[in-house]
Design goal:
Blueprint lengths: L1 H16 L2 H7 L32 E5 L6 E2 L14 E7 L6 H11 L5 E3 L2 H6 L1 H9 L3 E2 L14 H18 L8 E2 L8 H10 L2 E3 L3 E2 L8 H15 L2 E6 L3 H16 L3 E7 L7 H11 L9 H4 L7
Parallel strand pairs: 1-10, 2-7, 3-4, 3-9, 3-10, 4-5, 6-7, 8-9
Helix pairs in contact: 1-10, 3-9, 6-10, 8-9
């Protein structure tokens, strides 16, 4: 089984590194190779809502990330696309067992959408959870390979952190492209990496204000932090963490209060997906191993049949 998963993973890596390979294998002998098709834009999945009073999604905003535009007043002030009482929900540092799934359930119960910025290693450890995020129609960007402060790294090491993160999330996503959005760890963005992202046409998401939920241990603290800041500012790109247990428990109440307060959710999507670079796909394959792209939920693969 392990050998089969490894072979499947390596095939996926080969196709990510050279998408034409799969087409060439099925082409008639002697035929000219077909031109590679342009990448399809991400498809916003539609899900049926069984809650007639759900928060829902008021607007879907598509962003052209050519030249790496930045969003979020904490670092960037050029593009303020939110109207009064509009909110973009963002979650960092997942996917993480239990916590991410609680966040997904809360969002599904309110038939609304968010942006997720997974850490590459976490996507590699829990690809089945990342697939749930994508299947639910949320926007998925990237948040480096291991959440290092890029201002403390050489340019080459910082570039590797960015690209390995994109590669790991892309492989874990399977056949679904990820969005061309990136968030810097701790929102610290060295100019040379910003310039590099511009060359890759990857948009940068900061935040309008930070919930600081990573400092909190009780869900009511997270609720208070989010709603107090939102009441003060009237709108915003909200930074939270699906990695944090307290946050995962706070999200249902946050959504209920958003609804009660007349706030509206905006979902952000990219115009074109980001393509992982071949050398970093191969590097991730070597580091994480096989089975990443086709992983099923752990409970459907491994079960305790004896003992505690």
């Amino acid at each position: 089984m392990r050998t089969a998963l490894a072979l499947a993973f390596l095939l996926s890596v080969a196709m990510l590194c050279d998408p034409a390979r799969a087409e060439d294998a099925s082409a008639p002998a002697g035929s000219a190779p077909a031109a590679a098709p342009a990448p399809a834009p991400p498809v916003l999945l539609k899900t049926q809502c069984d809650n007639p009073t759900a928060l829902g999604v008021a607007r879907v905003v598509q962003i052209d990330t050519t030249g790496a535009p930045g969003f979020g007043f904490q670092n960037f002030k050029a593009y303020d696309f939110l109207r009064d009482h509009e909110v973009v929900l963002t979650f960092d540092d997942g996917p993480w067992p239990g916590n991410t799934e609680r966040v997904l359930k809360a969002l599904a119960d309110q038939c609304t959408k968010a942006m997720f910025f997974p850490i590459g290693k976490h996507a590699g450890w829990h690809p089945e959870i990342l697939k749930k995020v994508i299947a639910a129609g949320h926007t998925v960007g990237s948040h480096t390979w291991s959440h290092k402060d890029l201002t403390k790294l050489s340019f080459e090491d910082a570039k590797a952190e960015v690209e390995k993160g994109i590669a790991a999330v892309s492989i874990a996503a399977g056949d679904k492209p990820i969005a061309p959005f990136f968030r810097f760890p701790a929102l610290r963005n060295p100019p040379e990496v910003v310039q590099y992202l511009a060359g890759r046409n990857i948009g940068i998401f900061s935040t309008d204000w930070d919930s600081f939920d990573f400092k909190m241990r009780r869900p009511e603290q997270v609720v208070r932090s989010v709603m107090d800041r939102l009441t003060k500012h009237g709108k915003g790109i909200i930074l939270m963490h699906d990695f944090q247990h307290a946050t995962s428990e706070a999200v249902p109440e946050i959504l209920a209060r958003l609804k009660a307060g007349g706030f509206k959710i905006v979902q952000v999507v990219g115009k074109t997906p980001v393509e992982p670079l071949k050398e970093y796909v191969e590097a991730v394959a070597k580091e994480i191993g096989g089975g990443l792209e086709s992983a099923r939920p752990m409970s459907s693969v491994v079960k305790t049949i004896s003992g505690d």
